[in-house]
């Protein structure tokens, strides 16, 4: 925030930030946001008779040269392409356009960027496009290296799509400072709140110069990590974990192959111990998962069941799991990775997933039910889990009577494409469902320092996005001090670089303590992160103490304190 904004009183600063964000959103996100009174919106899949105007007035594409007939060696059909010059690796590019095809009723269209120096192409956005209307494609990218000449082009794998038509294309560059400022402005609006403490005496007269101390007790935003049975009885691990995280997910201990390795022989011992640990430390827990559609992780004995036997087994699984843990887990991942796999629907029919959700809802009505899948924000090339594919699957199940409450995006990243991550979150955010990044890590193919740098970018992007309600890291440490892809500490619980990133962000994203004094109007104003707080007010020999909570709201939180002499 600039010096002029910093000098404004809190309501004026809040208004300025709101105007800044509204301008950014008007220019940079989707062209429509669902109003608060609408039911779940599928605007992400909306097709319009006419394209809307280009965002940013087209950005740098206003001056780009066009190629009317562009071809590359990879398969697909192409449309006019844009030639771009002097593209910088230090810049984040936000891309959008409206797309229509000739030929099949619908097909996925990819936008790609080709750098001529390296002859390497990169997918930068996708959309599920129709032949009778215009669909919105939103994406983004940052180049691996600067390029003197690049080509932005469009591709569909459908052999019957003869033409891709593009309208209102826009490519807007952002410097690192602009990108980060946008994050900070959004954090001020969605993760923090302005507070006004007004102090008066027993005669209701304002008190000037009263000392005010505010200390944060708990954080509102859920930020946690996976844990495994290796944390049981491991005091150093437990202390390291509880010092940092307010949320947990069990890595494998709730999965069907772990709780019922053979038919009828259930074993919840490890899950029970993990649950006791998190509950005794006031840590919320996600339930992961009820069913996993990937046959590789389906219990071996279940794979041999068919028909009524399989139906009885899945009914027993839901009944056993959710009756045992009713009310203990805030979320359940009901059908894990169903965009990529279909073990149960392939054997039980297309309504199997809808039946799973319906049964789970009746068994544990207080839990929020999620779909959960990979490569939604991680990879642009995986059309099975594009934002549009995710939304289309949600709509298909919603039309079948399923009530959805949460979107789970795993977040197993290689090198993250942060502008693309933001574009996907923008699109899925129009569904107005809570989005959680559920299994965030960075590939072990990178060294620890690079993992940490990439992790920081992903966490900052997720925390700054208004549609993201929580972030979970997939960093459970096993008995041999190993992790799935990325560890936060070594075997002695000394931070690795990724652990240092977590600690630095946790410190940045909380309000440890605020100290000050009431002004000539008897008020003390400040901004703080959402959460629970302890408040203490002192004036001469008078003291008042209490607690208050800050939840997300556009309104300033007003707290009135009366200093009374004698017993309160």
From TrEMBL:
The text of the family note is: Belongs to the glycosyl hydrolase 10 (cellulase F) family.
Q: Which residues form the GH10 domain?
A: 208-505
Question: Which SUPFAM superfamilies does the entry link to?
Answer: (Trans)glycosidases, Galactose-binding domain-like
Output this protein's name. Answer: GH10 domain-containing protein
Q: Which GO terms describe its molecular function?
A: endo-1,4-beta-xylanase activity
Q: Does the keyword Cell division apply?
A: no
Q: Which PANTHER family does this chain map to? A: GLYCOSYL HYDROLASE (PTHR31490), OS05G0304900 PROTEIN (PTHR31490:SF79)
Q: Which UniProt keywords apply?
A: Carbohydrate metabolism, Hydrolase, Polysaccharide degradation, Signal
Q: Provide one Gene Ontology biological process annotation.
A: polysaccharide catabolic process
Carries keyword ATP-binding?
Answer: no
Q: What does UniProt give as the signal peptide span?
A: 1-36
């Amino acid at each position: 925030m600039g010096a002029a904004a910093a000098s404004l009183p809190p309501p004026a600063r809040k208004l300025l930030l709101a105007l800044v964000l509204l301008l950014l959103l008007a220019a940079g996100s989707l062209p429509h946001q669902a109003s608060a009174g609408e039911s779940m919106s599928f605007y992400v899949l909306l097709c319009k008779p006419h394209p809307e105007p280009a965002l940013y007035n087209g950005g740098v594409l206003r001056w780009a040269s066009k190629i009317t007939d562009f071809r590359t060696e990879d398969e697909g059909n192409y449309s006019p392409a844009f030639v771009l010059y002097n593209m910088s690796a230090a810049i984040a590019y936000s891309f959008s356009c409206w797309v229509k095809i000739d030929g099949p009723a619908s097909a996925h269209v990819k936008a790609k960027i080709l750098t001529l120096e390296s002859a390497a192409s990169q997918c930068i956005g996708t959309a599920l496009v129709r032949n009778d209307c215009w669909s919105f494609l939103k994406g983004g990218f940052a180049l691996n290296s600067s390029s003197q000449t690049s080509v932005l082009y469009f591709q569909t794998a459908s052999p019957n799509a003869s033409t891709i038509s593009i309208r209102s294309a826009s490519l807007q560059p952002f410097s690192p400072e602009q990108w980060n400022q946008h994050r900070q402005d959004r954090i001020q609006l969605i993760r923090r709140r302005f507070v006004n403490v007004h102090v008066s005496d027993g005669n209701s007269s304002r008190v000037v110069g009263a000392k005010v101390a505010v200390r944060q007790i708990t954080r509102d935003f859920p930020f946690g990590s996976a844990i495994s049975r290796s944390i049981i009885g491991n005091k150093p691990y437990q202390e390291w974990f509880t010092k940092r995280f307010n949320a947990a997910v069990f890595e494998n201990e709730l999965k069907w192959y772990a709780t019922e390795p053979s038919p009828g022989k259930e074993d919840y011992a490890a899950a029970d111990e993990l649950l006791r640990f998190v509950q005794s430390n006031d840590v919320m827990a996600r339930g992961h998962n009820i069913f996993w559609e990937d046959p590789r992780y389906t219990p071996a004995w279940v794979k041999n069941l068919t028909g009524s036997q399989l139906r009885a087994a899945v009914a027993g699984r839901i009944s056993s799991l959710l009756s045992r843990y009713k009310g203990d887990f805030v979320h359940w991942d009901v059908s894990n990775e169903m965009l990529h796999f279909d073990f149960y629907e392939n054997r039980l029919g297309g309504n199997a997933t809808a039946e799973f959700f319906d049964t789970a809802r009746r068994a544990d009505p207080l839990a929020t039910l999620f779909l959960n899948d990979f490569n939604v924000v991680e990879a642009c090339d995986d059309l099975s889990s594009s934002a549009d594919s995710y939304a289309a699957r949600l709509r298909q199940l919603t039309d079948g009577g399923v009530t959805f409450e949460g979107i789970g995006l795993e977040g197993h990243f290689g090198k993250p494409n942060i502008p693309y991550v933001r574009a996907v979150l923008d699109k899925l955010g129009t569904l107005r469902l809570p989005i959680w990044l559920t299994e965030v890590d960075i590939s072990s193919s990178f060294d620890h320092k690079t993992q940490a740098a990439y992790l920081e970018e992903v966490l900052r992007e997720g925390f700054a996005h208004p549609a993201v309600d929580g972030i979970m890291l997939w960093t459970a440490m096993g008995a041999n001090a190993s992790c799935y892809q990325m560890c936060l500490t070594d075997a002695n619980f000394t931070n690795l670089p990724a652990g240092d990133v977590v600690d630095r962000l946790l410190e940045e994203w909380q309000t440890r303590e605020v100290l000050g004094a009431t002004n000539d109007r008897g008020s003390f104003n400040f901004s703080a992160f959402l959460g629970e707080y302890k408040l203490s007010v002192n004036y001469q020999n008078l003291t008042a103490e209490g607690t208050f909570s800050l939840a997300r709201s556009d309104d300033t939180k007003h707290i009135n304190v009366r200093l009374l002499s004698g017993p309160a």
